[in-house]
Amino acid sequence: MNYFITPDLKSISGGNKYDLNVIDYLNTHRCKIVNVMLKDINLLSYKFFFKINMIPKNSTLLIDGLVASKMNYLIKILSKKYNIILLIHHPVSYEENKNGDISSKLKERKVFSHAKRIITVSHTMKKIIKNMLTKNKNIDVIYPGVDNIYYQNKITNLSINHNIATTGSVIPRKNIEKCIETLSHLSEKWTLSIFGGFYDSDPYYKNLISKINYYNLENRVVFHNTIDDEKILIEHLKNSRVYLCLSKYEGYGMANIESATIGLPLVVADLPVFRENLRGFNRTYTDSKSPRAVADAIIKTSFDDNHINLRTRSWEDVGFSFKQVLNG
């Protein structure tokens, strides 16, 4: 029997969308998998461990990397009883430090070492994971898919609105402060729409509001919070002129691919993973540390229908690849 241990998948994120599509495919294609969710990733209790320990011996446990990163004290015990496969969207030890937080890296290395197999979402992440391991291990790369609705909503011309769209949780590694600073270098016709979950009480969000006020951009920046309905999100994207992603670190960057799929020009941070997965799309790599350089790149963007019919993987392809891994 197969079990998939994940964080709470109710919130919208690229990783959660990936996990949900894998679960849906496997359960509708004769590969039953039971989802065991950890409601609060910060409260990995012994109660949860006992819940996992009730799973029949020799079962396959597919564990999302966000949960796995908290299981360094349990993984050795579990590995003796179960077939452990890890799904690593990105090693969490690199979220706030480009060289990786030493303490977190040691914990993740311990977890990775007890897995029979590891799945990740890009060759860039495979390289990082491989460098964290002390011995060779089988690492499969299974790229995310794109929902069909993005292929069905191609734009034919850039919007007359000079709006910049960016999508993702309002957290420090998304580098939203540089998006705001970039806007301060653009003329007043330009606006910025930020689509992603945030809390009014969050210190990072408060810092962003202070920066907006400092640059007098109150009327040009809008936080839309998470939009669950993809049809509504796509309409916002189609009413934008460019998609901007200045993230400091990503495992893949699904929102980039989705925006590029409908034909929106991209201006993105010059990250190795974006060099890997955006080939063929209408994209411009930029120095994310220089708001002036980012602003110049945005001004120069243009619509190019030569990129409009580029297709990436479907979620059926992703699910089929997982089925192959689980079936050994």
Please write the string of helix (H) and strand (E) elements: EHEHEHHEHEHEHEHEHEHEHEHEHH
Give the strand order, joined by hyphens, for the main sheet: 2-1-3-4-5-6
Characterize the biggest β-sheet.
6 strands, parallel
The fraction of residues in strands falls at 15-25%
Would you give an account of this structure?
The protein has two domains: 2-145 and 314-326, Glycogen Phosphorylase B (Rossmann fold, 3-Layer(aba) Sandwich), CATH 3.40.50.2000; 148-307, Glycogen Phosphorylase B (Rossmann fold), CATH 3.40.50. The strands form two sheets. A six-stranded parallel beta sheet has the order 2-1-3-4-5-6, with helices on both faces. The chain has a six-stranded parallel beta sheet with strand order 9-8-7-10-11-12, with helices on both faces. The chain is built from 14 helices and twelve strands. The chain has helices at 14-27, 46-53, 65-68, 75-81, 102-113, 123-132, 148-151, 176-183, 203-214, 230-238, 254-261, 272-277, 291-299, 315-326; strands at 2-7, 33-38, 60-64, 83-88, 117-120, 139-141, 163-167, 191-195, 221-223, 242-245, 266-269, 283-286. It is globular, with a radius of gyration of 20 Å.
